Amino acid sequence: MKRVLSGIQPTSDSFHLGNYLGAVKQWVELQDGHDAFYCIVDLHALTVETDPALLRKRTLASAAQLLALGISPDKSTLFVQSQVPQHNQLGWIMECLTGFGEASRMTQFKDKSSKSGADSSRVALFTYPMLQAADILLYQAHYVPVGEDQRQHIELTRDLAGRFNSRYGQTFQLPEAYILKTAAKINDIQEPTAKMSKSSGAVAGVIEIMDSPDANLKKIKSAVTDAGREVTFDAVEKPGISNLLTIHCALSGRTIAELENEFAGKGYGDFKAAVAEVVVEYLRPIRTRALELLEDEKHLLDILHQGSAKARTVAEATLADTYKNLGVVL
Ligand code: TYM
User: Of the residues 75, 195, 310, 324, which is catalytic?
Assistant: First the structure.
């Protein structure tokens, strides 16, 4: 069976629709027929200032949401990054392989550090992609389901794996990014040319999985639309409507052409009401289930501890091979 690995940061109380449609929906599909490892990357979340109580709460909320969204502990290994110390250990080796210039070209680092100013950015923000490479390579993953914004990090991971293999002997599987064309980038519904994002979006533009159905209904009904009144897909001229079409299709399973037909001659208001209905009804049982799961912290911790124990056995074997090939005395 081919291996799949992906990760998500516990940086907010709720995942948003971009996280789900760009990544987690594919995680759920790939757990059938693949050996899947999914990781709550709490160490990556530390690259920005964090409050200890919030980190704990959000890590558990992440687990509850992933389970509610369909990750099954019987099919997938769900674990917390910090519970598998080999991530840090291999992360260091990855840093030793990465050029300063190469790391400086990572667009996520450039974007994030330009927001807070390079001087006040953490060193760990710079080395973030090397820890991510370690996350992937420890599990010898074939596929990494992510949104478009992660493509460059997966490319770097492939480069580092290839570099290590050619210098020190075959050690790592070269991973491939698994990015769906249709939902690779979900945009902010108030600013539809920008990515929906936990950190940069205004609250009104981000559809959160844990938001109340009412709040999400209101948000979608007040989504920004475009000039004209036809419901047609045109990402350049009609970014607002196109984003809503993408969201509707991804959740309802219908095609863009079907929706364009259905809404021909109707206004944006009718269309937004239909999108709101699809989103709210899709998310309603997921939120309810996540809230139920959060009532039983011990159950969540049991699942995470079991997942971490399984992840450690795989990670230990890869790290031992890596050290042996590097010439470390064992
Ligand atoms: P994070 O937590 O920022 O995002 C989690 C996943 O959601 C995707 N995503 C989106 N997809 C489509 N449209 C959007 N607007 C949108 N916003 C976010 C991201 O692409 C991601 O797949 N660096 C990773 C975390 C990570 C990781 C890993 C991923 C750490 N180690 C190893 C894969 C493998 C991140 O930014 O997650």
Answer: 195
